[in-house]
Design a protein that fits this description.
single chain; about 1000 residues; alpha+beta; 6-stranded antiparallel β-sheet; 33 helices; about 20% strand
Length: about 1000
C-alpha cells in the first residue's frame, strides 16, 4: 500500500481542499436535515375503529368485534390481534410481525374487511389507520375570551383559525375541541301534536323532506340544455318555523304551531378549561418525515398573527417541538463541549497547540461528512442520531491521535528523516491495526441496530450513525491529517515525552514487569472480574427506557363510579384550584370526556395537561409526587395516573400500555373477575407500584325499556317506531341541518322542557291511532347495572390488571409481582405478563444476542488480525472485562441497567480490542529485532502507554457533558454515556495489563531475525 500513502502525501493540497468542499456540503445538508425529537417510530401496528353510536356492549362484542377478530387474524403478517369494545365502539389493534410493510398490511386489512362487510351491520362506520407519529397530537392551542360566548369562540377557532393552520407546511390534520356548538332545537308540544294528529316521526319526516334541493334532470329551454333542480333549503330559524308539517281542516299546520324553534347550544359531551376557565382547543397533527421545527414556527406565527386582530381572545399553547429544539440543541452543545474537552486532553499529552488544533479540526470535519451519510441513509436530526454522533466523536479522534502521537514520537527520535518519508512510515505502521480496530468498534455496535420494537427503532439509527462516523474518521485520519501535517507542521526537533519518562511511565513498567514475571499466576486474577460481575448482576436496578424531564406532565383521572359530565367537572375543580397555587406550573389544560390519545371518551374520564416553567426548582418527578400525595386527600373516589407526554406516546405507538400489565383469561368469567380483584388488592401493597386496578371501565347503570309487543300492535306501531318516540321523550332526535355560510347547524327535535320533569314512566308518547300515551303504558322500564367494556386477545376475553411505577425500578418491582402471582395462581386461569416489562425482557434477550454476536465478530476480526486462534480467544476474554467493570459501576452509581446503558456496555467491548490491536502491532514490531521477548513486550507497551491513555481519556471526554447531564434531554443518553465511561476504565486496564499478559502466554510463534523461535525465547529470557 506504499503507493497509496505516497499518493496521499503528494496530493495533500487537493485532498485538503476537497475535504473543505465536502465539509461545506455537509454543513448545508445539516441545516436542511429534518429535525425531530426521536427517529420516525412507525410501529408495525394497524388500528381498526368501528363506531355504531350507542349500540349495547353485547351486540358490539359478539356481533362486530368477534366477527372482525376472527377474519383479521388470518391476514398474512399478523402476529397478534387485541381488541377493546364498549358501547357503540370497537377498537381492534392489529400487531404485525417485525419488518412487515405497514402499507401493504393496511391494504390487506382493507381488503379483508371489504370481504366481510356484509356480516357487520350497515350502520357501522369503519376506520382503518396505521399507527404512526402523525396519529397523535403534536401541538395544542387553547383559547379563552371574556367577551366572546362559547359558541362564538368555537366558531372563530373552527372557521377562522383552523383553515389558516391547516395550510401550513408539514401540518397533517387539525381538530377543534371544547366550546359550544349551535343547533336549532325544535321543542315539540305533545298536546298540540295530539290536537293536529301528528307524531314525532311524521314531524321528523317533514323536516327531512322539506329541507332539500334535488336534481330533476336536463330541460330544453330556448334551445339550450338547462339543468333543473327542485325543492327549497331552510336558511334560518324564521324560515324553519314557517315549514308546513301537515294540514288540518283545510289549513296548513306550520312547525311553529306545534313547537318552539330556538338557536341554542348543542349537547356537550366534552368540556375543556385553561387554568380553570372554559376554553376551545386547537389540536395540531404534524406529518411524518418533516422538519418539526419549521412546521412549529409556521403554526405559531400563523396563530399569533391572526390572534392579534382579536384583542379580546387570549391563548396558551404547548408544542412537543419546544422540547425537541431544547433537547437537540442541548445535544449539539454537548457535542461541541466534548470536542473542546478532547482537544484539551490532546494538548495535555502532546504538549502542542498545533496538534490539538489538528485533532479539533478532525471532529467537526467527521461530523459534516456524517451528515452527508445521514442524508443518504434517510435519517433525520434527532436525539438518537445526534447521540450516535456524540458517542462516536470521542472515538473519532482516536485514529487522529494515534497518527499524531506516532508522528510526534518519530519526529523526536528520527529527526534526520524527511517529513514525507516519516509520514509514510507512520501510515505503514498504523493503518492495519487502525483499520481492524475501527471496524471492530463499528461492527460490535452494529447488532444493537437489530433490536425490534420501539427500542430497535430508537437505537437502530443511532447504530448506523455511530458506525458511519467511525469509518469516516478512519478515512479522515489517513487522508486529511497527513495533509495538515505536511502543510502546517515545521520539521523541528521535539522534546522528550513527559509521559514516557514520567513517574507514571516508570510505575506502569514496574507493575507490568511484575505481572509478566508470573503470567499464569496473575491470569487467574481475571476470575475476580467475573466474580464481581456475577455479584453485581442481581444487584443491578433494571428498567426499559430512561426517564427524562420534558417539562410537561399529564394527569389522567377517572371516577370510580360513572358520573355525568358536569358532575365530573365539579369533582375535579378542587384539583384545578390546587394546581394554581404551585409556583412551578406555567399553565394547565383540563379535559373531561376526551384526551390526547382518544377524542371520544366517557364523561367521567379525562386528563389535565400541566405545562411547567422552564426555570424551576423542582423536577417533574418531584412535582408528580407532590401532586399525587395531595390529590388523594382532596378528591376521593377518583383514580389518578401521572405521566409525561412522550413516554406515554411511545407506549401508545408500541401498544405496550402501562409499565405493568397482567393478562388473565379463563373459561369461568366469574373466577377470572375474582382473581383480578384479588390481585389488585395484593399488588397494591407492593412498594413502588402505584395506581393498581383492573383496566376496564366499571359497570354502569342502564335503563332497559322492554316493549310489550301486544300493546304495540294495538296502537299500530312497530318496536322501531316506539324506540324513536322513546328517544324523543328521553333525549332528542337528530333531524336535518341548516347551512349557514361555512357552518352547518343541525336541527334537533326535543320535547318541551316542562314535559320532561315527570318520571320516566309518565313521559308522553303520542300515537296516531292510540292518542296520547305514556312510556310506562307500552312497556316496562328497568334499571340494571351492565358491563360497558370488554377486552379480547386473539379472540379470547381477558381481564387486564395494570399498574404504574413509582420510585422503584421495573426489575425489582416485577420480582415482587411474580411472587404475588405465584402465590395466587389458580388452575384454569392463564396469566401473562405484558406492558413495558414484556418489551424490556424482549429487548434484553435481543441485547444478550447482540453481545454474543459482538464477541463473535471480535473473535473473527482478531483472528484475521493476529492469525492466531489463542490470541483471538484471549482478546475475546479481554473484551468481556470492560462491560463487567461497567456493570459494577452501574450498581455502585445506582444507574439502572436499561436498553440505553446495556447498549453502552456492549459498545465498550470493541474499544478494548481496538486498543489491543495497536499494542500487539507495536509489540510485534519490536519482537522482530529484540533478543528478549519480554523486553519486546515491555517496550511495545511502553510505547503504547501514551496513545492508550490519550485515546481512552479522549473518548471519555466526549461523553462527559451528557454523562453529567448538563442540559435538558441528556437523560435519554445519560445511562449510555455513564456505562461507556465506566467501561473505558476497564478497557484501559485490559489493554495495559491483561492483553500483554495473555500475549505472553499465547503470543506469536513467528521466528525472529536470527531464526530463534519467539515462543521459546520468551521463556529463556524469563529464566
Amino acid at each position: 500500500m506504499g503507493h497509496i500513502y505516497k499518493y496521499i502525501i503528494n496530493k495533500k493540497t487537493p485532498l485538503l481542499f476537497l475535504s473543505i468542499f465536502i465539509a461545506i456540503l455537509g454543513i448545508q445538508i445539516f441545516l436542511n436535515l429534518p429535525r425531530g425529537l426521536f427517529p420516525e417510530v412507525n410501529y408495525p401496528r394497524i388500528v381498526v375503529d368501528v363506531n355504531m353510536g350507542f349500540t349495547p356492549l353485547s351486540m358490539m362484542e359478539w356481533g362486530v368485534t368477534t366477527v372482525l377478530e376472527k377474519e383479521l387474524r388470518s391476514v398474512p403478517g399478523v402476529r397478534l390481534v387485541k381488541s377493546s369494545t364498549s358501547r357503540g365502539l370497537s377498537n381492534i389493534q392489529i400487531f404485525l410481525r417485525e419488518n412487515e410493510d405497514v402499507t401493504v398490511a393496511t391494504q390487506r386489512v382493507n381488503a379483508k374487511i371489504a370481504e366481510v362487510r356484509a356480516l357487520i351491520p350497515p350502520s357501522a362506520i369503519i376506520t382503518i389507520r396505521p399507527i404512526t407519529a402523525a396519529a397523535f397530537t403534536a401541538a395544542e392551542y387553547c383559547f379563552t375570551s371574556d367577551t366572546f360566548s362559547e359558541q362564538d369562540l368555537r366558531s372563530y377557532v373552527e372557521y377562522t383559525l383552523k383553515p389558516i393552520v391547516l395550510v401550513q407546511p408539514g401540518v397533517f390534520n387539525v381538530k377543534v375541541l371544547g366550546g359550544a356548538q349551535p343547533e336549532y332545537q325544535v321543542q315539540l308540544d305533545p298536546q298540540k301534536m295530539a290536537y293536529y294528529n301528528l307524531t314525532a316521526a311524521m314531524v321528523n319526516n317533514r323536516v327531512l323532506t322539506s329541507n332539500v334541493v334535488d336534481f330533476i334532470g336536463p330541460v330544453d329551454h330556448d334551445g339550450q340544455e338547462v339543468l333543473a333542480f327542485g325543492g327549497e333549503l331552510v336558511h334560518g330559524g324564521k324560515n324553519l318555523e314557517q315549514m308546513v308539517v301537515s294540514s288540518h281542516l283545510g289549513r296548513s299546520v306550520y312547525l311553529k304551531d306545534v313547537a318552539q324553534v330556538q338557536l341554542r347550544d348543542a349537547w356537550k359531551y366534552k368540556d375543556l378549561a385553561l387554568n380553570g376557565t372554559e376554553c376551545v382547543a386547537l389540536d395540531v397533527f404534524y406529518q411524518e418525515g418533516i422538519d418539526q421545527s419549521i412546521t412549529s414556527k409556521a403554526v405559531k406565527a400563523a396563530v399569533s398573527g391572526e390572534i392579534k386582530k382579536e384583542p379580546h381572545i387570549r391563548y396558551r399553547s404547548w408544542d412537543l417541538n419546544d422540547f425537541t429544539d431544547t433537547a437537540t440543541n442541548a445535544v449539539l452543545y454537548d457535542l461541541l463541549l466534548g470536542m473542546a474537552i478532547i482537544a484539551f486532553v490532546t494538548f495535555v499529552f502532546l504538549g502542542s497547540v498545533k496538534y490539538s488544533l489538528f485533532a479539533l479540526v478532525v471532529m467537526p470535519l467527521a461530523a459534516t461528512f456524517t451528515f452527508i451519510a445521514m442524508k443518504g441513509l434517510g435519517l433525520s436530526l434527532n436525539l438518537m442520531t445526534l447521540g450516535g454522533l456524540t458517542a462516536a466523536i470521542g472515538l473519532v479522534v482516536d485514529n487522529t491521535v494515534i497518527i499524531l502521537e506516532l508522528y510526534h514520537h518519530k519526529k523526536k527520535t528520527e529527526p534526520g528523516i524527511p517529513m514525507s518519508q516519516r509520514l509514510a512510515d507512520v501510515l505503514n505502521s498504523v493503518v492495519k491495526p487502525m483499520f481492524f480496530g475501527t471496524l471492530t468498534i463499528a461492527l460490535v455496535f452494529t447488532p444493537i441496530g437489530l433490536l425490534s420494537g420501539v427500542s430497535g427503532m430508537f437505537f437502530s439509527p443511532m447504530a448506523h450513525v455511530h458506525g458511519t462516523a467511525l469509518m469516516i474518521s478512519l478515512v479522515i485520519a489517513v487522508v486529511i491529517i497527513p495533509s495538515l501535517i505536511l502543510l502546517f507542521d515545521k520539521d523541528k526537533k521535539e522534546t522528550v515525552s513527559m509521559v514516557e519518562e514520567s513517574s507514571l511511565g516508570r510505575f506502569y513498567l514496574k507493575t507490568l514487569r511484575w505481572i509478566l514475571q508470573k503470567p499464569k499466576k496473575h491470569v487467574m486474577g481475571i476470575y475476580l472480574f467475573f466474580l464481581l460481575g456475577l455479584i453485581a448482576l442481581p444487584l443491578a436496578k433494571t428498567g426499559f427506557l430512561p426517564e427524562w424531564d420534558e417539562g410537561d406532565m399529564v394527569i389522567d383521572y377517572r371516577a370510580n363510579d360513572p358520573l355525568s359530565l358536569q358532575s365530573t367537572v365539579d369533582h375535579i375543580r378542587p384539583l384545578e384550584k390546587y394546581l394554581k397555587t404551585i409556583p412551578e406550573i406555567d399553565f394547565f389544560i383540563r379535559k373531561t370526556g376526551t384526551s390526547l390519545g382518544s377524542f371520544d371518551k366517557s364523561p367521567y374520564l379525562g386528563e389535565i395537561i400541566v405545562k411547567l416553567k422552564p426555570h424551576r426548582e423542582k423536577s417533574v418527578f418531584e412535582l408528580r409526587d407532590q401532586i399525587s400525595e395531595h390529590v388523594e386527600k382532596i378528591i376521593p373516589n377518583f383514580e389518578f395516573d401521572f405521566f409525561q407526554i412522550l413516554p406515554d406516546r411511545l407506549n401508545d405507538l408500541s401498544g405496550a400500555g402501562k409499565p405493568v400489565a397482567i393478562y388473565l383469561s379463563g373459561k369461568d368469567e366469574v373466577h377470572v373477575d375474582n382473581l383480578a380483584n384479588r390481585l389488585v388488592e395484593k399488588l397494591s401493597h407492593i412498594e413502588g407500584l402505584e395506581s393498581v386496578r383492573v383496566d376496564e371501565t366499571p359497570p354502569a347503570p342502564e335503563l332497559i325499556f322492554h316493549i310489550n309487543e301486544t300493546l304495540s300492535r294495538v296502537i299500530d306501531m312497530s318496536p322501531g317506531d316506539i324506540v324513536q318516540e322513546a328517544r324523543l321523550a328521553l333525549f332528542s332526535l337528530d333531524s336535518s341541518t341548516i347551512q349557514m355560510g361555512a357552518q352547518t347547524v343541525p336541527i334537533r327535535l326535543k320535547l318541551q322542557e316542562a314535559d320532561k320533569k315527570s318520571s320516566i314512566e309518565k313521559l308522553p308518547l303520542y300515537t296516531a291511532r292510540g292518542g296520547l300515551r305514556h312510556l310506562g303504558d307500552i312497556g316496562e322500564i328497568k334499571t340494571q347495572s351492565n358491563r360497558v367494556e370488554s377486552t379480547h386477545i386473539d379472540g379470547t376475553p381477558v381481564k387486564i390488571v395494570t399498574a404504574e411505577l413509582g420510585y422503584r425500578d421495573l426489575g425489582n418491582v416485577m420480582k415482587d409481582v411474580k411472587k404475588v402471582l405465584a402465590e395466587n395462581a389458580e388452575s384454569g386461569i392463564a396469566v401473562q405478563l405484558a406492558g413495558e416489562y414484556e418489551s424490556q425482557q424482549k429487548s434484553f434477550d435481543e441485547l444478550i444476542i447482540a453481545f454474543l454476536i459482538g464477541l463473535a465478530l471480535i473473535f473473527l476480526m482478531s483472528l484475521f488480525f493476529a492469525n492466531n486462534v489463542a490470541i483471538a480467544l484471549s482478546l475475546v476474554a479481554c473484551a468481556i472485562i470492560p462491560p463487567l467493570v461497567g456493570l459494577v459501576g452501574l450498581v455502585v452509581s445506582g444507574v439502572p441497567l436499561d436498553v440505553s446503558s446495556f447498549s453502552g456496555l456492549i459498545s465498550v467491548t470493541g474499544i478494548a480490542v481496538a486498543n489491543s490491536f495497536m499494542a500487539i502491532y507495536a509489540i510485534e514490531e519490536r519482537a522482530e529485532y529484540r533478543t528478549h521477548f519480554l523486553q519486546a513486550v515491555q517496550e511495545g507497551m511502553k510505547h503504547r502507554l501514551r496513545p492508550i491513555l490519550m485515546t481512552n481519556l479522549a473518548a471519555m471526554a466526549g461523553f462527559i457533558p451528557i454523562a453529567v447531564g448538563l442540559s435538558q434531554g441528556d437523560e435519554i443518553l445519560q445511562p449510555f454515556s455513564i456505562a461507556i465511561i465506566i467501561g473505558l476504565f476497564g478497557a484501559m486496564f485490559t489493554t495495559l495489563y491483561l492483553m500483554p499478559l495473555f500475549y505472553v502466554i499465547f503470543g506469536s510463534q513467528k521466528e525472529a531475525v536470527n531464526g530463534t523461535d519467539l515462543h521459546m525465547r520468551r521463556y529463556v529470557s524469563h529464566k
